[in-house]
Amino acid sequence: MAQDEEELRALRGHNPPHAATIIHTDQQAISAKGDSMSGSGTSVPWTRRVLHFCSPTRRLPILSWIRRYDGEDSTSDLIAGITLGLTMIPQSIAYATIAGLPTQYGLYAALMGSLVYVFVGTVKEVSIGPTSLMSLLTLQYTAGRPPGYVVVLAFASGLVELAMGAFRLGFLVCFISAPVTSAFTSATALIIIGVQLRNLLGIPRPGSGTAGGGGFFGTVLNVLSRLNEATLGDTALGVSCIALLVALQQLPRFTSARRTSRLHRTLWYVSLARNALVVLGSAFLAYRLAASSGDGSVPFHLSGNVEPGLPSFQWPMRGVTVGNTTVPFLEVTAQLGSGLLLVPLVAVLANVAIAKAFASEIAVDATQELLALGLCNVVGSCFRAMPTTGAFTRSAVSHASGVRTPLSGLYSALLTLLALGVLTPYFYYIPRATLAAVLIAAVTSMVDLGIVRRLPRPPRHSAVDVASWALCFTVCLLLGVELGLLCGMTVSLIEPLRHSLWPRADCTTVRDPSTGVRYRRIRPRNVPALLYPGVDRLRKIVLAEAHLQTAEVVGTSGEPALPLVLDCKRLVALDFSSVRALRELTQQVHRLGGTLYLRDVPSAWRSSLQLAETPYGLALP
């Protein structure tokens, strides 16, 4: 991931200035309109808000930018779309193998994801399709089951994403911190590498596979114990493909972009198409070896037959046929378990993060991106596609190719459709070791172990980030990615919960400039809301201040204690437990011989608290 971001920064110079404005201008207007409506609160009728939410120009962004589309945009999108397609097709074939699916399922996902996003997508660089992360999660929940379970998983994930978009639940991904995301993706990349070592070395798969086989270490140990089953042909081909992919990736660095721009551009395109070149070259080699041998044998394992053409429309809710029986849809979803929530959550996290990375000029419409991702999965599942999300590598390729609009996805989809209709007979000759090499080379950049050195550096940085990263990374490798993500999220929430449970306050003596009255002000300084987790802590602060005032009165002149005023200016939320606690706290302070008032109380609270005006502030009954 870190390497992809570095390449992205280096390639930003290839993007024309106009490319950053064609879509974003209209989207800014839409966002501004939405903000003005939402800011008016209850003054806007709910029917009007619903109509605005369902507005065709808002939910079909293509209606906004297609009116400005011109020949220059078409040329740029054509180049970007073809370049992206050459990257997407071999990746999709490889990602299908991670999920334990036939090759065509990855191509179905690439086709439908690219096509649907043209109409509903908002970020021109985002490429929707199969990814290594989605493939591994799919394998986690559907290993050993028919491909129909994968289709149902994609359909259910799409429904969850649509629901998240409809209810504007995109903020949920904010609960996954950056260290947890890094640990999750790094562990996932290592797991994928461990799983693909079998194909790279030509070791046969176990009889009944699981996603992890005892976790990452169990998978690696299993491969090491079966090294005697490795074949020389697969190993030689796989290692050679990895070396060739790395060499092709470094090609643009051998020339200066300024002095020899044409040569640099040529080498850059060759580098982008490296996956396609390696896959086609290996397939051609296998075809020639099979043709030259008498029995059609080759010294390495091949992918096998691929179903040609686009499948017909099939409604996923009809269930899954297993043998001579049909498993009902609800029973299939029950067997998928937590995957119905984890798969869409991770997909949303990846897609929104990629959209934010590329749409740096404007704020990303997260709601529309959720709806777009949900539609890609729902529509794709009707054509037997596996779960999809945005891919950082492909999005970087699209950005570097000078993409202008999401219409570039149409050209990628057409290229994928051409592959399904014409090239599928030749997919039989693609060696498995080559696909494993493509995957290993692609996910290696996702491993970001260097973040461990960066985490403790800031002087005020909490050890919680280090702990959440370490726990998430370890549990993902040992027990599974879904449990690791949950553990990492739990630990990372300790820091914000600590501030909610342990609010702090500044206590100072203040003189009111208008009345000259002195009082003791208590101002919470690290909590934005007064909610039930922090009530007891605030109660202790106020009572401690009340005891202090009483002690000063008794031990000195006997003058009346200064009234206590709770400053609510920085608080924006209040719950029922806090309302009741404030009333009880007022009575406790009164029994100690003091008084408690509230100041700068939001108007929405006043009716709930039944406050009365006083010279010091608002008093509770």
TrEMBL record:
Cellular compartment(s): Membrane
Primary location group: membrane
GO CC field: membrane
Coiled coil region boundaries: none
UniProt keywords, alphabetically: Membrane, Transmembrane, Transmembrane helix
GO biological process: transmembrane transport
Pfam families recorded: Sulfate_transp (PF00916)
PROSITE patterns for the chain: STAS
Residue intervals passing through the bilayer: 78-98, 143-162, 169-195, 268-290, 336-358, 370-387, 407-428, 435-455, 467-494
Topology of this chain in the membrane: Multi-pass membrane protein
STAS domain mapped to chain residues: 564-621
Protein name as it appears in the record: STAS domain-containing protein
Originating species: Anopheles atroparvus
